[in-house]
Amino acid sequence: MDTFIRSGAYTLDISNIWGQTSPGDMKLRQTLMAIIEEFFRCNNDVMLYITETEDGKQAFRDRLFVRWFNTYEKHNQFFIQTAEGKMEGQTNFIAIISRRDNPKLQLAIHEFEKTVAFLFD
Predict the structure, then answer these.
(1) Helix (H, G, I), strand (E, B) or coil at 52
(2) May I ask the CATH architecture of the domain 25-119?
(3) Among 19, 31, 83, 119, which one is least packed by beta carbons within 10 Å?
């Protein structure tokens, strides 16, 4: 695991390899939530979500992801905390997601907040 959360974390990477607009695509939302649900069914680790920065649409992606996550019918089973900041002049968005019953959750949140404070200008 190559991560700044020493207690253990995985990253979620969503790529649009065809470059097509799809913010209203409910199949994408359903697929994404199914992946997250299955991940946490099999793991009690932490997931990190980091927005893509290539095209300057990271704020839009963050808002969309958080909206999808918060309207997910099982979202109360999970903890999510987001952060926004600049790295080398570019705004970035990151989130930590975990099951609420993760025994390492408080440690992971502390590591997340400490690292975010270090990384962001």
Answers:
(1) coil
(2) 2-Layer Sandwich (3.30)
(3) 19
